[in-house]
Specification:
This protein has 272 residues and is α+β, with helices and mostly antiparallel strands. It is built from five helices and 18 strands. The strands form seven sheets. Strands 10-13-14-9-15 form a five-stranded antiparallel sheet, with helices on one face.
C-alpha cells in the first residue's frame, strides 16, 4: 500500500474539547483514521475548506492521518478493537497484491472464517466519529453501541457500507454529517432553466486502501455501489463468525487541482 493523501472538510481540531465517543469535555487524544498499523503510517496531506470557504491542500506530513477526537478513557476502551481492522486490512491487501488475478477483478468474493465482524465495524465506526463529531448528538444509540462493544440492533436511518479500494488509489477521509449536497441541472426546455436538487451528504468516508467504507443516510444506499454491512453491529466485539463477502471494487475520480467533497463526486468502477 502506497503513501496517502486525503481530504478533510473542516478546520483544525483543538487538543481539548468534546469527546466524539462519550460527549465529555476532556483533553483529547489523537485518533488515527484508519488504525495506524493498517498502512496509515506514512506521509499524509490534509486538505479542506478554509474560513473563507476556499479549498486548499496542506503539506504532506509524516505520521499518517489523525485527528484529536477521543478522551483517554474512550481511546483505551476502543483502541484494542483495531486489531481486527488491521487483521482484515492485511488479509485483503495480501489478496490484492499477490493474487494471480491482480488487476482483473471487479469484485472481491470469499468467505472469512473465525473472524469478528462486530469488532471490525466498531473499529471503523470509532474512526468515523473522529471525522463526524456531531454523530453522538444525532445518533447516540449508534455511538453507544460502538463505545461499549456489545451486540446492538443495527440502526435503520443510517447505514455502514463497505467496498474495496484498489492498491494505488488515493486516500480520501471526509466527514460531512448532516450536510446537504446541492446539484444543479438544466431542464432542456425552451427556457432552459436551472433546477436544484438537494440530497444528504455522506456522513463519513474512509476511502483508504484496501477498504472503501462509508457511513450514509439510508436514502443514499441505492445510489452507492458499496455493500451494506450494518448488521455486523448485531454481533459483539468478541463474537466469532463466518462471513461471506462480495465486495465491489470502487474508486474516486482524481481531483488534482483542489479537493472535492465526495458527495459531489460519483464512485467509479475499478479493478483489483
Amino acid at each position: 500500500m502506497s503513501e496517502q493523501e486525503g481530504f478533510r472538510p473542516t478546520g483544525g481540531r483543538a487538543k481539548s474539547g468534546k469527546c466524539a465517543l462519550c460527549g465529555a469535555l476532556a483533553r483529547l487524544t489523537k485518533a488515527h483514521v484508519p488504525p495506524r498499523a493498517a498502512f496509515n503510517n506514512g506521509s499524509f496531506s490534509w486538505g479542506g475548506t478554509t474560513a473563507g470557504s476556499r479549498l486548499a491542500h496542506g503539506r504532506p506530513r509524516l505520521g499518517g492521518a489523525s485527528l484529536y477526537a477521543h478522551c483517554e478513557t474512550c481511546r483505551a476502551a476502543t483502541s484494542p478493537w483495531d486489531d481486527e481492522y488491521i487483521r482484515w486490512a492485511y488479509t485483503f491487501a495480501g489478496n490484492l497484491l499477490h493474487s494471480q488475478w491482480k488487476g482483473e477483478r471487479t469484485h472481491i468474493e470469499g468467505k472469512l472464517s473465525e473472524v469478528r465482524p462486530g469488532r471490525f465495524i466498531r473499529s471503523a465506526l470509532a474512526g468515523m466519529t473522529a471525522l463526524t463529531p456531531k454523530l453522538i448528538d444525532s445518533h447516540p444509540d449508534l455511538v453507544w453501541a460502538v463505545r461499549h462493544g456489545v451486540a446492538a440492533p443495527a440502526p435503520e436511518g443510517i447505514r455502514f457500507l463497505a467496498a474495496i479500494a484498489p492498491d494505488g488509489a488515493a486516500a480520501v477521509l471526509e466527514g460531512a454529517h448532516e450536510g446537504l449536497a446541492v446539484k444543479l441541472s438544466r431542464d432542456g426546455g425552451r427556457d432552459d432553466e436551472w433546477t436544484a436538487a438537494t440530497t444528504p451528504t455522506i456522513s463519513a468516508v474512509i476511502h483508504f486502501p484496501p477498504f472503501s467504507l462509508l457511513l450514509a443516510d439510508r436514502q443514499l444506499v441505492s445510489a452507492l455501489p458499496h455493500a451494506d454491512c450494518t448488521d455486523w453491529l448485531e454481533l459483539g466485539v468478541d463474537d466469532l463468525a463466518e462471513v461471506s463477502l462480495a465486495l465491489p471494487v470502487v474508486d474516486l475520480p482524481r481531483t488534482p487541482d483542489a479537493p472535492v467533497p465526495v458527495s459531489m463526486l460519483r464512485f467509479i468502477d475499478a479493478r483489483a
